[in-house]
Automatic annotation (TrEMBL):
Pfam families: SBP_bac_11. Signal peptide: none annotated. InterPro entries: ModA/WtpA. This is Molybdate ABC transporter substrate-binding protein. It comes from the Bacteria.
Length: 232
C-alpha cells in the first residue's frame, strides 16, 4: 500500500507502519513531503491508498472528493514548541525544557530575536495569525524566516539561519544543534491534530481502513508518546 504525509509526522508514521506490518497488516510505504505539496499531489489525482495531513487539510480534500470523508481518523495531537541553537546565549540562559511562563514572555522573545524561524505547515500559519492578532506583524516581518517546504525548522536553528524557531515539538526533539525551551504557554498554545484518511483512488479501501484503525488503537499509543505526540 502507498501513502503520503506531511513531514511533521514522518517518523511516527514510519514506526506505526512497521508495528502494523509486524501485527500482520498490509505493508505501508509512506512518502513524506511538505504538507502543501502533499495536498496538491492528492488533489492532482496522484493515486494513494492513505493520506496523512492536518485535519483541516483532509477536510478540504474530502470536500473535493479526493479522500473519503467518513474515513478521516485523528491520529496524533502535536503541540508547537520553541527551540534555540544549542550554542546561543538563550540556550545558556534557559535550561532545556524551561518553557515560557505566558504569552508576554513569548512576545518579548519574539521582539528580541534577530531571526525567527517557522514552518510552511499549519503551525506556521497559526503563528502568523497569532502575531497579527498581537499587532506585531510590522514589527517582526523582516525577521521572519519561513523554512523551505520539506525543510524542518530544526535545520535552520542548527545551521544558524535563525536564533529562535517555532515548530511542532516532535520535529524538534532529538535534533542535533537544537535546545528546546518548551511548548508554548497555555495562553498562546498552538496545537494541530494530524489525521489519516482513505484516498478515493485506493485500490484496497478496506485494507487501508484497517491500517487506520490500528494507527488509532491503544496498541499504537506508546509509539506516539515516544515521538512526543499526544492523543487527539
Amino acid at each position: 500500500m502507498k501513502a503520503i504525509s506531511s513531514m511533521a509526522t514522518r517518523h511516527v508514521l514510519a514506526d506505526l507502519a512497521e508495528a502494523a506490518a509486524a501485527a500482520g497488516l498490509p505493508l505501508l510505504q509512506i512518502e513524506s513531503v511538505g504538507g502543501v505539496d502533499a495536498a496538491r499531489r492528492v488533489a492532482g489525482g496522484e493515486p494513494f491508498d492513505l493520506v496523512f495531513l492536518a485535519v483541516d487539510a483532509l477536510q478540504r480534500l474530502a470536500a473535493e472528493r479526493h479522500v473519503d470523508p467518513a474515513s478521516i481518523t485523528p491520529i496524533v495531537l502535536s503541540e508547537v514548541a520553541v527551540g534555540v541553537p544549542t550554542r546561543s546565549p538563550d540556550a545558556a540562559k534557559r535550561p532545556e525544557g524551561t518553557a515560557f511562563a505566558n504569552a508576554d514572555e513569548l512576545r518579548s522573545a519574539l521582539r528580541t530575536a534577530s531571526r525567527i524561524g517557522y514552518s510552511t505547515g499549519p503551525s506556521g500559519t497559526e503563528l502568523l495569525l497569532m502575531i497579527d492578532q498581537w499587532g506585531m506583524t510590522d514589527e517582526v516581518r523582516d525577521r521572519l524566516v519561513q523554512a523551505r517546504p520539506g525543510v524542518p525548522v530544526a535545520r535552520l536553528l542548527a545551521e544558524g539561519e535563525v536564533d529562535l524557531g517555532l515548530q511542532q515539538l516532535s520535529e524538534l526533539v532529538g535534533q542535533p544543534g537544537v535546545r528546546i525551551l518548551g511548548v508554548l504557554p497555555a495562553d498562546c498554545a498552538i496545537s494541530t491534530v494530524f489525521a489519516g484518511a482513505v484516498a478515493t483512488s485506493s485500490s484496497d479501501a478496506a485494507g487501508a481502513a484497517e491500517l487506520l484503525a490500528f494507527f488509532r488503537s491503544d496498541l499504537a499509543a506508546s509509539i506516539k508518546s515516544l515521538h512526543s505526540f499526544g492523543a487527539p
